Every structure is written in C-alpha cells, then in structure tokens.
C-alpha cells in the first residue's frame, strides 16, 4: 500500500487538498491551491508513533513534511473535511496500513525536533509555576530573538490581542501591510486606558509587560508614571532602549523581575495583559490577591487574557502541541473561573468583554508578517522555529474563529469603603 492510498484510507478519497509523497504516489484534489507533501520516511515514523496533531507537528517542524500554499487554508479544509466525513477505518484497513508501513516504523523511535519542550526537560526545571521554572519557560518562548519578534509583530512590538474597528478589521487589509495592525494595537491600549480611567499623575503597574507597549502608551498618551515588569531579560532590555529613544524615561520604566517581587500598596491602576495564561489554576487566587494588595483603595485592575469558552474544560494538555511547542506550562481558564477568583480576592467586577474575533484577526496579521519576511525570519531563528510559529499562528486563527478559545478583558475595582470611584456610565 503506497502512502497516497494510506492517506485516502485515513481521510477519505475526496480530500480538498493535494497529497504527494516521496514514493511518487498522489491523492486528493489534483488542482488544489494547497498541498501536503511527505518528503522522507522519517515523517512516516513520526506519524506512525503519534498518529495525531503531535505527529504531524513533529514531521512538519523537522522538515520531513511540507505544506504548499497557505497554512491556514490547509488546516481549515482538513478540519472541515475530517469533521464532516469522520475517520472510518476497519480492522482490515488498520492491519493493511501496519503491514505497508512496517512494524519497525512503530517501534523505532525517532527523537522529536529540538523545538519541542519535552516533559522530562520541564520536570528538570522544578515544580510547575515555581519561580525558577516560570523564568525558564518564559525564556523558552519570549527570548527567541527581538529581531524575529519585530518581523512578526510589526512596529508596535505588541504580542497580545489587538482591537479592530470595521475599517481596520477588513480581511483585505491583512495582506496590505498598511498600518491596520498598528492602529488596532493602539486602539487596544487606549481601550485598556479608558477602562482603567488613566489620568495624568497616576501610578500604573503593568505585570507581564512584554516589550513595554502599555507602559509607553500610558506615559506618552496619558502622562501616567508607569512601571512594567517581565521575566524576559531580552524584553526588558529592548523596552529600556525604546523608552529612552522616545524620551519617556521620566515616566516609563520596565524592569526584569517577577511580579511577585513588586512592593505592595502603591499603585492607582494595574494592567495584566497576557500574563494570566502563565499563572496556573492553583495560583489564580494568590495572583489576584497579590494584585489587590498592590492597589490603593479605589484602584482598578484590568485583566486581559486568553480563556476557554467554558469553565469545565481542561486548562491544559501537557501532551498537546501548544504546551509542547509554544507555551510550556500554559493554562487557560474559563472567564467565569477568572472572574470568581478576582471576586474572591476582593475585587468588585465592573465590566467583562470577549474579544475572540479580534484575536483571530490579530493572528492573521502576524502570520502574514511572518510569511512576508520568511527568509529573514529563518535566518534569525532557524527553519524549525519559524515553522513552529507558522503552524501555531494559523492553528490559533482557526481556534479563535471556531470558539475553541476566547479572549476576555475583565475590569475589577478595589473599593474605597463602598465607593467604586466609577462614573455612572463609563466611556468605553
């Protein structure tokens, strides 16, 4: 049985993509604009040993499986087709596949590509969400290369969900590279600023501040004295240079430090944009309690993070692609769980908003940036890492579009007695 026949047995004879393999066989739609190509027998090893998304990811990241055309289109078509048709293999089919592939493929283990964070490596770093392990997993993802992030994220250097209006959010703008993403990222920071009610002279703490986008926005646009903290040394160094270049050093600062080491009780406002995903379910209560303690009475917290659509879904899959290749130890909670934890820490919840569709658009822009700058990106981080990013961003577009994941902003207030110090109808 040749590989194309195995492909047809597994996904059906009418797959809406082209399939080709090193053994010269082909299947699927011959005129399709997207294709899968199995380049070497090693790809078969990976798929035989992990006949799921992990096996496909290993084969693609290592270069033994290629995708021709748009990655998102491949994932969407295959997802639509497999979900609609289902996989119906008889015992005879399975036996035939095993005989064709050869039992050696199933038992002759091939090491995963180096981009995979294996369970053993994580275990050697200590307990999940300990300070030491948190620092290491943040280093794994964020200290890839500032130059690489500049190519993917664009001038804003903002690695969190943007907020689009109808004009900037038009799909045709994705391939135009005309500033729609940067406009949407500015709009996000301004939305956070309005929800927090930033005013000149206030003190803002931005935890998990990335490259300092919120810190600089608050200082530049609102005259706020802002401190950002990050576990990524490369982010902190990049942000310090940009703050100096923009002449914001009197108001803005980014430090390489753990948010848990920031002193308590001195901030008017706190923003947490894209950090909660790294905290862990068992640490949520202590996380929000620590942020509550850092706020003055009447202070506000805006928590912005990726969420699960329901509270009863698993927070993480340690053996899944995202946790192995993108966000080791990353955990996603339902919005209700996060809100409850904020409530229990003492916050009065004043507003909640789901920006799911906006993150799908943001990821489309990042993916387009990567494809446009592919050769330079590969020269900076290597083809394997660039392939991880291409696959992960396209897959996440699909995830947000199909409500597998969401993005919530939740606004909480530390009451001053019983006074929330909020206008009757906020302007956001």
List the topology elements.
Blueprint: H1 3-11, E1 18-21, E2 26-28, E3 35-38, H2 41-49, H3 53-61, E4 65-68, H4 71-85, H5 91-101, H6 103-107, H7 119-123, H8 131-142, H9 146-153, H10 180-196, E5 203-207, H11 213-222, E6 225-230, H12 233-245, E7 252-256, E8 267-273, H13 284-294, E9 295-307, H14 321-326, H15 335-344, E10 348-354, H16 356-372, H17 374-381, H18 383-401, E11 406-413
Parallel strand pairs: 1-3, 5-6, 5-8, 6-7, 8-9
Antiparallel strand pairs: 1-2, 3-4, 9-11, 10-11
Helix pairs in contact: 2-3, 4-18, 9-17, 10-11, 13-15, 16-18, 17-18
Task: Using brief descriptors, characterize the structure shown.
428 residues; alpha/beta; Rossmann fold; seven-stranded mixed β-sheet; 18 helices; 11 strands
Main sheet attributes: strand count, strand direction, barrel closure: 7 strands, mixed
What's the end-to-end separation, in Å?
A: 61 Å
Q: What is the level 1 CATH name of the largest domain?
A: Alpha Beta
SS-based structural class? alpha/beta
CA gyration radius, whole angstroms: 23 Å
- Indicate the percent of residues in helices: 40-55%
Structure notes:
It is elongated, with a radius of gyration of 23 Å. The protein has two domains: 3-107, no CATH class; 134-413, Vaccinia Virus protein VP39 (Rossmann fold, 3-Layer(aba) Sandwich). Helices cover 45% and strands 15% of the residues. The protein is built from 18 helices and eleven strands. The longest helix is centred in the last third of the chain and has 19 residues, at 383-401. Strand 8, helix 13 (284-294) and strand 9 form a beta-alpha-beta unit. Helix 4 packs across helix 18 (383-401) and helix 17 (374-381) packs across helix 18 (383-401). By secondary structure, the chain is of the alpha/beta class.
């Amino acid at each position: 049985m040749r590989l194309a026949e195995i492909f047809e047995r597994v996904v059906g004879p009418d797959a809406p993509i082209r399939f080709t393999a090193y053994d010269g066989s082909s299947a699927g739609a011959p005129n399709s604009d997207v294709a899968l190509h199995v380049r070497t027998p090693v790809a078969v090893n990976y798929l035989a040993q992990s006949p799921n998304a992990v096996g496909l990811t290993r084969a693609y990241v290592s270069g033994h499986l290629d995708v021709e055309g748009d990655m998102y289109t491949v994932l969407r078509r295959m997802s639509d087709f497999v979900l609609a048709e289902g996989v119906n293999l008889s015992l005879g089919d399975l036996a035939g596949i095993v005989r064709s592939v050869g039992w050696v493929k199933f038992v002759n283990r091939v090491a995963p590509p180096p981009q995979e964070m294996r369970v053993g490596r994580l275990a050697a770093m200590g307990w999940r969400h300990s300070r030491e392990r948190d620092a290491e997993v943040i280093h794994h993802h964020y200290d890839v290369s500032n130059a690489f992030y500049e190519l993917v994220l664009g001038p804003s250097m903002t690695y969190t969900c943007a907020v689009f209006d109808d004009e900037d959010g038009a799909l045709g703008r994705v391939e135009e590279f005309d500033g729609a993403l940067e406009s949407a990222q500015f709009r996000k920071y301004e939305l956070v600023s309005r929800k927090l009610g930033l005013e000149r002279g206030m003190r803002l703490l931005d935890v998990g501040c990335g490259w300092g986008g919120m810190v600089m926005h608050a200082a530049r646009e609102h005259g706020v004295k802002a401190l950002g903290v990050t576990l990524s040394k490369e982010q902190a160094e990049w942000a310090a240079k940009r703050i100096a270049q923009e002449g914001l050093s009197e108001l803005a600062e980014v430090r390489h430090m753990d948010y848990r080491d920031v002193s308590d009780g001195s901030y008017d406002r706190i923003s947490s944009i894209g950090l909660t995903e790294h905290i862990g379910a068992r640490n949520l209560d202590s996380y929000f309690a620590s942020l509550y303690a850092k706020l003055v009475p009447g202070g506000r917290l805006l928590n912005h993070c990726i969420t699960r659509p329901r509270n009863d879904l698993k927070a993480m899959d340690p053996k899944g692609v995202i946790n192995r290749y993108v966000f080791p130890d990353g955990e996603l909670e339902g919005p209700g769980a996060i809100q409850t934890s904020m409530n229990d820490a003492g916050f009065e919840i004043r507003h909640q908003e789901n920006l799911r569709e906006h993150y799908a658009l943001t990821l489309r822009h990042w993916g387009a940036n990567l494809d446009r700058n592919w050769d330079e990106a590969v020269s900076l981080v290597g083809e394997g890492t660039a392939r991880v990013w291409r696959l992960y961003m396209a897959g996440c577009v699909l995830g947000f579009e199909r409500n597998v994941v969401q993005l919530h902003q939740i606004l909480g207030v530390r009451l001053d007695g019983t006074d929330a110090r909020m206008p009757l109808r906020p302007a956001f």
